[in-house]
Amino acid sequence: MSDDRTPIVAPDADNISAAALRLREGGLVAFPTETVYGLGADATNDEAVAAVFQAKDRPRFNPLIVHVGDLGEARAAVSFNPAAETLAEAFWPGALTMVLPRLDDRIALLVSAGLDTVAVRVPNHPVAQALLAEAGVPVAAPSANKAGCISPTAAGHVVFSLPGPGKGGPDMILDGGPCHVGVESTVIDLSGSSPVLLRPGGVAAEDIEAVVGPLASPGKNVATQGGAQKSPGMQERHYAPNLPLRLEAEEPKPGEGFLAFGPGAPGGTEEAMNLSPTGDLEEAAANLFAMMRALDGPPFEAIAVMPVPDRGLGRAINDRLRRGVGPADG
Questions:
Q1: CATH number at residue 135
Q2: Using one digit for the tens of pLDDT, what is the confidence trace for 82-95?
């Protein structure tokens, strides 16, 4: 590894303290959550937040999620309503992000693309929790990769996804091991009259509906005036590998890597990997991005993907796969 790449460090007390100091000083730190690795910056520091967008080549209309240590910190940042209180009690800390009206004027407007709402969550990962507690500031943290590309679920993915610290990338990467959820958080918009599912993710929509009732769809036009979006991950092309994806495939064609699912499907070879040989959707979600990365390059020319049931975490998996393909021509 060349010296200009970001150092991967153990998440011990000294490195947590050093990472927290870098955040307070306006630097960038990559750290693990239960969903994916995030690229963190002090959410109250305009220049630090701008550096996140620069490092990722991220469009300014695409907002960031603010990570906080507990419900009390979230209540200080955004205005809670009864539905938000209920969901926080049921799913926090965890892979649920809620979009609510802004309260804390210190949070950079760029975090929410200039909107009067902020997306917040409390991550369920000991390293993330330790970093937030030590930093003492809300941390804006999108996935630690180039915008639109496959999200990182291991520390090594971040090294090859972002520039080094001398070139606008993170100053360090806290290595907390593989992310056990493996897909980004579910995002619910609670700023209107009824809850809206903006992005399926690590908490199944069915579980959320069991708590607060039916979730509305965001509809076709998810952008607000000026082109800003209320949630990350809503672009038509996102989470994309370098190679083309072919979905709903029963078997690979010549030159294709094969992403299988379920019992009896091929897997465990260089050409074929199985998201879950037992058909477990949680296991499949945890493996999705890492296996896509493993197949994303020579000797393959494309990646074929078997059907995945569109229920529970399968909705999040299929959302990532469809956005990885991108919009149809025309």
A1: 3.90.870.10
A2: 999 999 999 999 99
